[in-house]
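Example record

The entry below shows one chain as it appears in the dataset: sequence first, then structure tokens.
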Amino acid sequence: MTTTTRTTTTSMLFSLTRSTVSSVMTLLAAGLTVTFSQAMFLHYSYEPIEEEPTRGTSFKGLARCGFVEEDEEVKEEEEQNESTFVSATKMMLSRTKRTTTTTKERRGKSKERKRVVIVGDSLATGVGCTTNTPALARIVAERLAELLSVEIEWIAVGKKGAALSDISSCVLPELRESNNSRRSVSNSNDSGGSSRSRSSNSSGHDSVENEVEEKEEDENAQNEFFLQQQQFQQQQQQQQQASSSCARKADAVIILCGINDVKTCFLHGKIFFRENFENELENVIKEIKNVVGSDALVVLPGNPLHIAPLFPNPLREVILKLNDCWDDKKEKVANKLGKRKALFINSPTLQALRDAVRMHGGDSGDGIREGEFTARDGVHPNDMGYKAWANIIAAEVAKVLKDNEVQ
């Protein structure tokens, strides 16, 4: 009797367990189906906001007001140091560079200057902010100029929808070209070649004297050819050395990436294979350092994706978890590089963004909700979002740059 009871109980428990597992698996499958359906719907229906900055000039203390004060001297300098903001239709590749300073400093004695490079996806180009108003690069430069009391020259190069592979293949060539363009040294490639005519004796019989002359001409021609080759090689070496020495070095490089890698991996069904991101990020950093200098501080900000209202649940939870994983990889890479050589900045909390608004000329900020920091596309920051985030980034970067100067 006891044995029968035990058998019945075991059978019931087994049946209940199997039923529970089956229910959990069914719910899990349903959840994954809904999540994937939401992702595919957003992938094909989402249209990024088209507006992005068309100007790249900001002066210390004025960029936050959304205008640029210009006079004849400033205009003349801008014409001399003209740089372009490119928005290509196919690639949506943007490049802009300017110097953040005050008008008085431009007229006065030249002060110390630092250079900041911003590289990455659409966040680097300022997608989401209104035309001719402050974007991330401009505000970071303005705030660093205030915190460090130096002139900040900055350049931002980015591509809409860029994953790490796109940054390597599309953005870095543009950065490399821009980095060398303004100080490239032009050397003449003229080899100074000369033409020679050889006369032949058609008297019907060869003389020893003519043979000697022809032999000497051949030897002279060969010697001149080798001499021209050596001169050409020397000119090439001089050009390479000049190009290398004229490539402007950066004090800090801010790399904005990760969101599009999350999207790519999710849509390709590789959400659990994240090691490639870490390795690829390390390779991209090496490539960037080859362009801007090995001493540049590498800054890896976490993405504030939690303020984006576009993603519905349960897709939102999955996206945020993946974003956290990618940010963990960024932090790991920064730790590998070392404290003085790299900086990981945690994704700002909602309260941190509110505090940044309050500290830098905004209202109290406490009543601002998550969606109010984003543009109408539901993903990219708006003017207020860029301003708050940029001030947070600049404060962290300034601390490290100051510490590096002391040490």
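Notes for this example: The first strand starts at residue 93 and ends at 100. The radius of gyration is 31 Å.
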